[in-house]
Amino acid sequence: MKDIRIESKPLGVGLDLGSSAVRISLFDYENDNLLSTTSQKVAYYINDNDPCIFKYTQSTPEILCAIDQCFKNLKIDKFHQNIKSFGIAATCSMVVLNNNSEPYNLIPNNLGKIHDVIFWMDSSSVQECKEANKLIDSSEKDKLGGSGFIAEMAVPKLIRLFKFKKNVVVMDLHKYIAYIMCKKFNWSFKSLVDIPNKNGVAHDGELSGWSNPNILKLVDEAASRIGPVIDTDTKNVMNITSHIDCYTSWFSTFPKPDKSVCVVAGTSTCFLFASSRDNLVIPGVWGPFTNVFEKNNFDKDINVYESGQQTTGILLEHLLQTHPCAIKSGLSQAELHVKINNYLDCNDDKGSVHLLNKYKFLYGDFLGNRTPFADPDVRGMYIGESLDCSFHDLCMKYLCILEFLAFQTKFLIDRLSENITQTFVNY
């Protein structure tokens, strides 16, 4: 932590929970200067060998343990009385609790670990997704890209969950973390009350924000089990807000309505566009979503649209975890990234490195297509495989991934450009 006196400073806290790490930063509330930041790793689990309802899970006890360690690093507990605002971002995952708001283990007898988070990456609810899309009309599908729900979204997951588990409570992960922070610091829960979005559509199809009666009818009795259950309280009022992580990026700070697309890349990648136009529907793109921005920041209401790739950063992670040369190297992924990029740079000096790759091609929708096709059954394909397991082969496969991501990025931006002119791209 920086050598700076903060005992009497009003503070702001930002918490960002990604797929594999939580990052927390401390800010000067008066001028937004960054005072200190820290991070901790967080695991997610792939349950291939278990007869379970959902394949991809996380653990809130592990998440909260990582958050507590970050708090210790930043000494937040010591200065929590100085906190004036708290912003929380997390993946669009779902927490499952029992009636006492305790973690509900979706995979019992799993080495003592508690798996109570249905991870955003999970696409187990394909059948439930098809069932739901048969029951919603075209105007509702238009706001979800034209095809309706995809299996990553919360509504199909909720339908699937309640087929097997009735006596549970569910929350969006970002709202759950906000709920825990309010309990921890004795803050008011008032900001966590679910207020439907202006157009009745939840951001990215998450749990909170719906008012459309046709959508609520889909989840039937499960709608009453969406938390948090808030008691009337008179605790300290705190400016605490939470949201899906992609919306809390640079995009929320400087969106440039109607002029720019913001690309937020990580394990997956989101393409975000803000518009002042009413009722604009873009085929193959989610939205419009309302209630993303504070209304007093703009002269008029701003709608948000999102397109995305489900597998981006995870493609590189998967390659470095599975390629024989990477495994034998004994190097960390960070070290491998540096070594591979140095190799590609050296070869590029002799002529375009892409010419070395001209007989190889990767299609990287390993977990299905999010937009514009909304097809959970699409899978990846690699053309040009051989028996080569050398470092050169590792580098060429790495380059294939980068090429696929570039092609896919252009494809999605072109899709937006068909409906939006004079748009700049911010990465």
Automatic annotation (TrEMBL):
Transmembrane segments: none annotated. Pfam families: FGGY_C (PF02782). GO terms for biological process: pentose metabolic process. Residues 263-418 form the Carbohydrate kinase FGGY C-terminal domain. GO terms for molecular function: D-ribulokinase activity. SUPFAM superfamilies: Actin-like ATPase domain (SSF53067). It comes from the Eukaryota. GO terms for cellular component: cytoplasm. Signal peptide: none annotated. Gene3D superfamilies: 1.20.58.2240, 3.30.420.40. This is Related to Protein MPA43. The lineage of its organism: Eukaryota, Fungi, Dikarya, Ascomycota, Saccharomycotina.
